[in-house]
Design brief:
Layout lengths: L1 H19 L6 E2 L18 E2 L4 H4 L13 H66 L8 H19 L2 E3 L12 E7 L8 E7 L2 E3 L2 E4 L1 E6 L1
Parallel strand pairs: 4-8
Antiparallel strand pairs: 1-2, 3-6, 5-8, 6-7
Length: about 220
């Protein structure tokens, strides 16, 4: 009887001890608690049993492989220095290229103006002949033919003005050897000192250069 009672007590005690033991739990490794060096990716979850928790614990990265080591920092500084040097070279080359392009544009414009000046200068005698022909006919003597010639002359002068050719109109201006070619000097008390009183052959400018000097008569 006593033996049976003892056996029952032992069974009850064993059952209580089993009930007091913690149930088996699953350990969830959350991404934000994963230490550096773990093989677990950011979005990866792994469920392990309590007895495997130590084996599955993420291993720290060896010190020699840690980001920010002296070797990596030195390589980073070297790469930054190389990038800055390349940027400086690129900026300098770009500035030199822009300067060369500007010089080429100016030289090309000068060459174009030089070629245009040579051609336009050859047209000036034609304009002179137009003006002589129109000046030889009075308003009363003009026929439809002369009026047509005058219209052509005006159209020619308007076209030349659009491309930069303009007459100097030297009469009444002070004599300038850079613009005028004095062929006659006269004494004229009514005219000012060193003033052009007559333009014997009209001079022309092409943009900022002299296309042909004016042949003028200068007073005093």
């Amino acid at each position: 009887m006593a033996k049976g009672m003892n056996e029952m007590l032992r069974n009850l005690q064993a059952e209580k001890e089993l009930e007091s033991l913690p149930e088996e739990q699953d350990i969830k490794v959350e991404p934000d608690k994963v230490e550096a060096g773990s093989d677990v990716t950011i979005d990866e979850e792994e469920i392990v049993k309590p007895e495997d928790a130590e084996k599955k614990r993420p291993k720290p990265i060896p010190k020699k492989n840690r980001r920010g080591s002296k070797q990596l920092m030195a390589e980073l500084d070297e790469a930054k220095a190389l990038a800055d040097n390349n940027k400086e070279k690129y900026t300098r080359l770009l500035a030199e290229f822009d300067n060369m392009r500007t010089r080429n544009d100016k030289e090309n414009a000068k060459m174009f103006d030089y070629g245009a000046s040579d051609t336009l200068e050859k047209l000036l005698p034609v304009i002179d002949n137009f003006e002589r022909a129109l000046g030889s006919v009075t308003e009363e003597e003009k026929t439809p033919f002369e009026e047509g010639i005058e219209m052509i002359y005006k159209q020619l002068m308007e076209t030349l003005e659009k491309i930069g050719v303009e007459p100097m109109d030297a009469v009444g201006k002070e004599f300038d050897p850079n613009l005028h070619n004095a062929v006659i000097h006269v004494e004229d008390k009514e005219a000012g000192e060193n003033v052009v009183i007559e333009e014997m052959q009209k001079g022309y400018m092409y943009k900022d250069t002299v296309l042909r000097h004016s042949m003028v008569k200068v007073a005093n």
